[in-house]
From TrEMBL:
<dbReference type="Pfam" id="PF00579">
    <property type="entry name" value="tRNA-synt_1b"/>
</dbReference>
<dbReference type="GO" id="GO:0005524">
    <property type="term" value="F:ATP binding"/>
</dbReference>
<dbReference type="InterPro" id="IPR002305">
    <property type="entry name" value="aa-tRNA-synth_Ic"/>
</dbReference>
<dbReference type="InterPro" id="IPR001412">
    <property type="entry name" value="aa-tRNA-synth_I_CS"/>
</dbReference>
<comment type="similarity">
    <text>Belongs to the class-I aminoacyl-tRNA synthetase family.</text>
</comment>
<dbReference type="InterPro" id="IPR014729">
    <property type="entry name" value="Rossmann-like_a/b/a_fold"/>
</dbReference>
<dbReference type="GO" id="GO:0004830">
    <property type="term" value="F:tryptophan-tRNA ligase activity"/>
</dbReference>
<keyword id="KW-0547">Nucleotide-binding</keyword>
<dbReference type="InterPro" id="IPR002306">
    <property type="entry name" value="Trp-tRNA-ligase"/>
</dbReference>
<keyword id="KW-0436">Ligase</keyword>
<dbReference type="InterPro" id="IPR050203">
    <property type="entry name" value="Trp-tRNA_synthetase"/>
</dbReference>
<keyword id="KW-0648">Protein biosynthesis</keyword>
<keyword id="KW-0030">Aminoacyl-tRNA synthetase</keyword>
<protein>
    <recommendedName>
        <fullName>Tryptophan--tRNA ligase</fullName>
        <ecNumber>6.1.1.2</ecNumber>
    </recommendedName>
</protein>
<keyword id="KW-0067">ATP-binding</keyword>
<dbReference type="GO" id="GO:0006436">
    <property type="term" value="P:tryptophanyl-tRNA aminoacylation"/>
</dbReference>
<dbReference type="GO" id="GO:0005737">
    <property type="term" value="C:cytoplasm"/>
</dbReference>
Length: 348
């Protein structure tokens, strides 16, 4: 999958502008909290890049997925609103990108049913990302929703015939499942007709950004550097990041993963390689490293943050973006559902 993503990355530069329909994008986020730099680097930047080449883009805000690993949805309205602000601030254009909430598109729920028939409980239980998420959910039993959410996600990708899915590394098992479901649907229910094409994951240079505690940066883990944070909050978060006690800063991903993560993070905002950032920090130890990283992140996010503040002054326009996105997503989903029912002989 990593190899295929590299190839796809090249094809986007060579062909997407000429044949945008072959690169249609679907991706999304859970409204569990504010977006962090991992989202920007791993997924948002690629979304904007494809949009700029004229590729039609869909972004699902996966609101039902919030309760895969917790009992309540929390401040979900506020989180959804915050996601839209970050999308717009990052450069997603609502005239060209359909931004919608899962719960507003009922046909997606029905599309899940044939897909569920194409997967076994053993396959669902072996999904490594689901296992990780279960382990992190504090001793909760495995709910039916957590077990099956990769299938729901497959429906979210396939309903709009998404071909390119810009994501982080934790999503690769779900993409593999989506590809299998597309193949199995075509073979079992459509007599081999290509009703659904197999989508590809598109990874970025940061398929897995670590958080300030050295584990995957995650909205739910309190280890994030958020896009909406102030420069001072960012400095505090980076100051608290785990590093090591060596004076000389070097880029050694295996021996010094936390230091390497910070070097990569800075380099992704300044355009330097992590080695170059390390040379720049030299012998000034963890404190010097953190100063350099803080400056790189704050400078790199200044434009985003200013745009976000401005957009936040007009909440009605965020609601309008969602309503229009939901309308368009419903239209596409109804059409796909009609095709599915027709090929399955259910068009009575
Ligand atoms: P949560 O803790 O609530 O699951 P999250 O930070 O994992 O939040 P998601 O909404 O689950 O965010 O994921 C949205 C997208 O961002 C996915 O494509 C995911 O792969 C990507 N992503 C999330 N965290 C990282 C990370 N640390 N590095 C790279 N990509 C990431
Ligand atoms: Mg997640």
């Amino acid at each position: 999958a990593v190899e295929r993503s590299r190839l796809l990355d090249r094809l986007i530069d060579e062909q997407a502008a000429a044949q945008p329909e072959r690169f249609r994008v679907l991706t999304g986020d859970r409204p569990t909290g504010p977006l962090h730099v991992g989202h920007l680097l791993a997924s948002l930047r690629n979304r904007v890049r494809l949009q700029q080449r004229g590729v039609e883009t869909f972004v699902v805000i996966a609101d039902y997925q919030v309760v895969t690993d917790r009992d309540a949805v929390g401040d979900i309205g506020e989180n959804v609103h915050g996601l839209v602000l970050d999308y717009l601030a990052a450069g997603l254009d609502p005239d060209r990108t359909t931004i919608f909430t899962h719960s507003a598109v009922p046909a997606l729920g029905q599309l899940v049913l044939p897909f569920l028939s194409l997967v076994t409980d053993g396959e669902l239980r072996r999904n490594p990302t689901v296992k990780d998420e279960l382990a992190l959910s504090g001793g909760r039993p495995l709910s039916g929703l957590l077990l099956t959410y990769p299938v729901h996600q497959a429906a979210d990708i396939l309903f709009c015939h998404g071909r390119v899915v810009p994501v982080g590394r934790d999503q690769l098992p779900h993409l593999e499942l989506t590809r299998q479901l597309a193949r199995r649907f075509n073979a079992r229910y459509a007599g081999g007709q290509p009703v659904f094409a197999e989508p590809e994951a598109l990874l970025s240079d940061v398929p897995l950004l670590l958080g300030t505690d050295g584990t995957k940066m995650s909205k739910s883990r309190g280890n994030t550097i958020n896009l909406r944070d102030t420069a001072d909050e960012t400095a505090d978060r980076i100051r608290a990041a785990r590093t090591d006690g060596e004076r000389r800063i070097t880029y050694e991903p295996v021996r010094r993963p936390e230091v390497a993560n910070l070097l990569r993070l800075a380099g992704l905002f300044t355009g330097e390689s992590p080695q170059t950032v390390a040379e720049r920090v030299g012998d000034s130890g963890a404190a010097g490293l953190k100063r350099v990283v803080t400056e790189a992140v704050n400078d790199g996010l200044a434009g985003h943050r200013a745009r976000r503040r401005q957009l936040a002054g007009d909440p009605a326009s965020v609601t309008a973006v969602l309503h229009e996105g939901n309308r368009r997503a419903n239209e596409v989903a109804e059409r796909t559902l009609a095709t599915v029912r027709a090929v399955m002989g259910m068009a009575y």
